[in-house]
Specification:
This protein is of the alpha+beta class and 64 residues long. Helices cover 31% and strands 19% of the residues. A hairpin with a 5-residue loop joins strand 1 and strand 2 (20-24).
Length: 64
């Protein structure tokens, strides 16, 4: 399915079956603690948008 946005908080990887899946990207180590909560919120919103678009998304508990 074609996305109408470019995901910034998830990385696309190839699936052995030939398809693609999205994986949550860990937050950058340089991210200041105050911004980590915002990063998690944005990542969660993006996760929902990817799911709504019918994409296969793997959510790692450590990312949220």
């Amino acid at each position: 399915m074609t996305l109408d946005f470019l995901p910034q908080f998830h990385d696309r990887i190839s699936h052995p079956n030939g398809g693609n899946i999205w994986v949550s990207a860990p937050h950058p180590e340089t991210l200041i603690p105050m911004k980590q909560n915002y990063y998690r919120i944005w990542q969660c919103e993006e996760y929902q948008r990817l799911c709504d678009a019918g994409e296969e998304v793997v959510a790692l508990a450590i990312s949220f």
